[in-house]
Specification:
12% of the residues lie in helices and 34% in strands. With 199 residues, the protein is mainly beta. The longest helix is centred in the first third of the chain and has 24 residues.
């Protein structure tokens, strides 16, 4: 066998046996372990700790499934008829509503939209409305009399349904409402207010 191969094997054996020798030296003949090294880590908190988030104890927002929609009798004034849209809490728990509903005429419950959706007048500050089970929130729908103006000539259409999305909801409610509407999408003939509480 060549001398270089023998030398290589001796070096390899020394490399394998050296850690074992070190490990044996770490323990005394009495069996006690070498003293352990303690490392202390200090964590410095940030200057602005995260706020504690607590669960709200108030009622949750009214979902579409919690509500029932109905339309009251209309009152006319200066070419516009106003209809109360009544949202009744049909659930067994309190819930809240805040802001504008999304309102439009449709061909049927779940049908296609007729004309432009209702506009929202500015300058109105919404208020949070809390509805107990069976309580009602109101929004007012103003419908322009399209028969007395020329802007909708040739686009008048009889509608029988209104759809309303409760504030911040993506599923609509439907209620019957038989009125003359305007199918012209570029002409806004409806306006709706924010929801308010009522008797």
């Amino acid at each position: 066998m060549r001398a270089s191969a023998i030398t290589g094997r001796r070096v390899l054996a020394a490399c394998v046996l050296a850690p074992i020798a070190v490990l044996a030296a770490a323990c005394s003949s009495s069996g006690s372990a070498a003293p352990a090294t303690t490392v202390t880590v200090t964590v410095t908190p940030s200057s602005s700790p995260s706020p504690t988030v607590s669960a709200s104890s108030g009622p949750s927002q009214c979902a579409t499934a919690d509500l029932k929609l109905s339309v009251g009798a209309g009152n006319g004034a200066a070419g516009t008829v106003y209809y109360p849209l009544d949202f009744t809490n049909a659930s067994g728990s309190d819930c809240t509503m805040y802001g504008y509903p999304g309102v439009a005429f449709v061909t049927s419950a779940g049908g296609s939209q007729v004309g432009a959706p209702a506009g929202r007048p500015g300058g109105i500050t919404p208020a949070l409305v809390t509805l107990a089970p069976g309580a009602v929130a109101h929004a007012t729908l103003g419908v322009s009399d399209v028969l007395i103006g020329n802007n909708c000539r040739g686009h008048q259409v009889q509608v029988s349904w209104v759809q309303a999305y409760p504030p911040d909801q993506y599923t609509a409610l439907y209620a019957p409402l038989s009125v003359q509407g305007c199918a012209k999408r570029s002409l806004v003939t409806l306006h709706v207010s924010t929801v308010t509480s009522g008797p």
